C-alpha cells in the first residue's frame, strides 16, 4: 500500500515545481515525486496540500533537557556573565534530572520541533548516569527516555551518545558538575551495542559524539572511532569544536594547534562528521574543514545567546562547505528563526544584504532552506534529503491563510515565513515518514505533553 499527496507548488532540490504528486510506501519512503501531474491523474485517496509544500528540516544539534531552563538564565549573575557561567547553571540543572523528567521535557520539545518544521533531530546525549554519577541499573535509561519521546512525538532521530572524560585539554580530571557524563571508552562502546536493537527497531540512526577536544583525550578519541567503525562503519560522528575563544587559546597552549587544525591533523575527518559550532577558525581551517566534506553544525540563536561569536559563512561556502542548523540549547526552537539569525548575523558583520543566496537560488530563504536540509540530512546520516524518491516523506505544508503569506506566490510565502512571520508559525501541517504529525498547527499529544513538561520544570526548579 502506498499513500500520496498532491501539491499545487512544492520545493524540490532544484527549486519550485508545480502540480507535484508525492507518493510513498508503507515504510514512509518516497517512491515518486512527479511535477506536472494533473488532478485527473491522481491515485484514489490522494490528499491535496492546503498550501506550498517544502522539505522538513533536520535539526542537527539538540540537548533536549536544556529546553526546561531556556529563558531562565537571562539575568546577570556574576560581574560578567559568559558561556562558562551559563554552563555552571546548566550543570546545576543537569544534576537533578530524572529519566521521567527527561522523557517529559523531550516529548514536549520534539512536538515543538515538529510544529516549527523540524522533522528529525540529532540528539547529542551526554547525561548518562544517576544524580550521584552511578550507572542506572539499565545503563541506557536516559537514552531510552529520549527514544520514547521521539517515538511518541513522531519525530525522526539520530541518537548520539556522548563520550565525556576530562574537564579540559591535557587530561584534567572531570569536575563534580560533570559526574553524570563520564564513561570509559569501552563502556561507551558497550552502550552503543546495547542501544542498537532498540534504535534499529525504531528507525533511529545511532552514531557517537566525542563531546569536545576538552572532554576527550587523543587516545580515547582514536579508540572510540575505531570501535564505532567495527559496530557501524558509516555512522555519524558529531563533536563540539571551537565554539569559544577560550577553548581555542587552551588548545593552542596544550598542543600548539587550534582545535579544528588539531582535529584535521589527528582524525580522518570526512563527510560522516558534523563539526558543531566551528565558530573560531582561521582561513586554512575554513578551507581544510570545508573541503573534508564535514558538515558545519550551526546553531545561530544558541551561539548568539551564549556569546560565542560569528561563523564566517561566506568563507565556509566559498570552499564548498556543507552546513545545517540545530536548536542546541533551545533558546529558540524554529528553523526559520535560526536561518534568519544566521543571515542577519552575516549582514551585521559585513554590512551587506542577502548573503545566503547562491548561484541557483537568488531568494535567500529558498537557498538557505535547501542548503540546510541537505547538510542537516548528511549530519543525521538518514535519508532525509528532501523531496526526492528514496528519501523519507518528511515535509511541511505552509499555511497560506497566515496573514504574512496570504495572496503571495509560493516563493514569497517561504521568504515571508522565514523573514516576516514575526515569531508566529506560518505552518499548517507537518509530515514525517509519510504520516501527518501536525495538523492545522496542532499535535494530538500537545496538551498532555505540555502538562507533563510544565510539571517536570516546576519539580526541577523547586528541588
Ligand atoms: C553542552 N552547549 O554540552 O551543552 C554545550 C556546553 C561545553 C553548547 N556548546 C558545554 N552550546 O561545551 O562544555
Ligand atoms: Zn551543544
TL;DR?
The protein is built from 14 helices and 17 strands. It is an alpha/beta fold. Strand 12, helix 8 and strand 13 form a beta-alpha-beta unit.
Structure description:
This protein has 463 residues and is α/β, with parallel strands linked by helices. It folds into 2 domains: 2-54 and 391-446, Urease, subunit C, domain 1; 56-380, Metal-dependent hydrolases (TIM Barrel, Alpha-Beta Barrel). 38% of the residues lie in helices and 19% in strands. It has 14 helices and 17 strands. It has helices at 83-94, 99-116, 141-153, 185-202, 218-231, 245-255, 259-266, 283-291, 300-305, 313-318, 335-350, 364-380, 410-419, 446-462; strands spanning 2-12, 15-25, 30-34, 47-48, 53-55, 57-62, 118-125, 156-163, 205-206, 209-210, 237-241, 273-277, 295-298, 322-325, 395-398, 427-432, 435-438. The strands form 4 sheets. Strands 6, 7, 8, 9 and 10 form a 5-stranded parallel beta sheet that branches. A 4-stranded mixed beta sheet has the order 3-2-1-4, with no helix packed on it. It has a 4-stranded antiparallel beta sheet with strand order 5-15-16-17. Helix 2 runs parallel beside helix 3 (141-153) and helix 4 (185-202) runs parallel beside helix 5 (218-231). The radius of gyration is 21 Å and the shape is globular. The N and C termini lie far apart (51 Å). The mean pLDDT is 97. It binds N-carbamimidoyl-L-glutamic acid and zinc ion. The site of N-carbamimidoyl-L-glutamic acid (NGQ) has 9 residues, from loops.
